[in-house]
Amino acid sequence: GAVVSPTSLTTYLAAPHALLSVSRVTGDIEWLEEDVSASALQDILAKHGQAGAVDLVELKTGEFLMPGFVDTHAHAPQVPNVGSGQQYELLDWLTNVTFPMEARFSDVEFAKKAYPSVVQRIVDCGTTTCCYYSTYHLESTKVLADIVHSRGQRAFVGKCNMDSNSVPYYVEPSVEVSMANTRTIIAYIRALPAPSPREPLVHPILTPRFAMGCTPQLLAALGALAHADPALAIQTHMDENAGEIAATRRLFPPASLPPPPAPPPPGCAGRGTYAGVYDAYGLLRANTVLAHCVHLEEPEVAIMAARRVGVAHCPTSNFNLRSGCARVGMLLDRGIKVGLGTDVSGGFSPSMLRAVQDASICSKVIAMQAPPADGDTGFAGQQLRVATLLYLATRGGAEVCNLEGRIGSLAPGKAFDALVVSVRDGAGNPGVWGADLDDALGMGTPGREGARWKTEEDELRGHLERFLFCGDDRNIRRVYVQGRMIGGKEFRG
Ligand code: GUN
Ligand code: FE
């Protein structure tokens, strides 16, 4: 059937008649033949030594296979809050809407009720890898990790660290308690049995909520833990909102900061900035995921590039909480890894499709307000095209998670983390844009007189664009992680 997969920030494979082999044992992709006619099928299987040894799955017209989405930033305990408190900016939203909901997860029974449907909802939206924040509660975070693990989703699960500047009923009591629970959850997640012969799917991630929510002592302790454990990923928020940035600068004046454990490369000190705070505590490195990064100053971009951090671009949330438009094109031009994040419930949709759509709109806003200068050939100031949006939602996210060798595209040696998408009306999302409407209007079959598409490849590219901009979870028929079906409309279990 048809296969779509990103090949670079500006190109993607669209192969209407591909054949892809997945190992039943490992769940990895063994090989991919990009152009296979029905008559050559048996010959190709024989060439790979697999004649008679395969379960053949044939996709229908209007269906295609693509890599699963990587949501680089989502708050599992906020999903029950989607669509409430939409009038607030960040700090009031945290106080009035978010902290009250998260506080309820002190009750592990509440977590056991909420998290199964949260995770299944996110999986059914096509998210095969998710960077989750839970709350600061140890037992509820274990519940989230258990559910993600038993569901078979690939994920990072982090217990928040937050011991200051919160509401009195939702704040960690001390650095010691925060760190002890952090060490416990990291060990707990690492001890979950790996479901495949290859590798664990669920990873711990250090999660200082944001600088202003942590005392300097807590940030120092987290930095020491990170230093002792270089493989441990880190996630946090940065430069999201003007009020947050002002508070952070007030709380962490440069004179109060320790020297960074690794000296910054010349020309990118970053001191006196938000990024400089994290860098001082050794929290910026190649496996750090920084959400938002809306209001960046040049020294911050320099230190981010030097430390090789990844950015979780969360446009739905950045519009919704009126935070601003992140300059994704500029970040890409600087070689900084960028993925997309839903940031539920700052973002009001758990679907990465919404993040894709808003990433497009955000880039168009920037293109209107700050178009590229004459002679600029990069991404800055340009609207993001479909190839780039696809890349950010899949492969860019994989890079941000440092999993680019395993996921993010459909290629031999990578895990089969994939979606079967259908753009037929029969998928249950009729009328608006369906391929069946094209047929009814005589615009369907490519190459025919009056057809919308010249070739089958054009048609597949058109179907991808429509799915990204007009699709929803009804179009996602199957969701696979490591070769195992774990969600989608056809999933029963
Ligand atoms: N900054 C600190 N906590 C949060 C959160 O939960 N959501 C968002 N969007 N920003 C934050
Ligand atoms: Fe967030």
UniProtKB/TrEMBL annotation:
Its cofactor is Zn(2+). GO terms for biological process: guanine metabolic process. Its EC number is 3.5.4.3. Residues 64-485 form the Amidohydrolase-related domain. It comes from the Eukaryota. GO terms for molecular function: guanine deaminase activity; zinc ion binding. The keyword Metal-binding applies. It catalyses: guanine + H2O + H(+) = xanthine + NH4(+). Gene3D superfamilies: Metal-dependent hydrolases, Urease, subunit C, domain 1. Transmembrane segments: none annotated. GO terms for cellular component: cytosol. Keywords: Hydrolase, Metal-binding, Zinc. Pathway: Purine metabolism; guanine degradation; xanthine from guanine: step 1/1. Pfam families: Amidohydro_1. The keyword Kinase does not apply. Catalyzes the hydrolytic deamination of guanine, producing xanthine and ammonia. PANTHER family: GUANINE DEAMINASE (PTHR11271:SF6). Belongs to the metallo-dependent hydrolases superfamily. ATZ/TRZ family. This is Probable guanine deaminase. It comes from Postia placenta MAD-698-R-SB12. The lineage of its organism: Eukaryota, Fungi, Dikarya, Basidiomycota, Agaricomycotina.
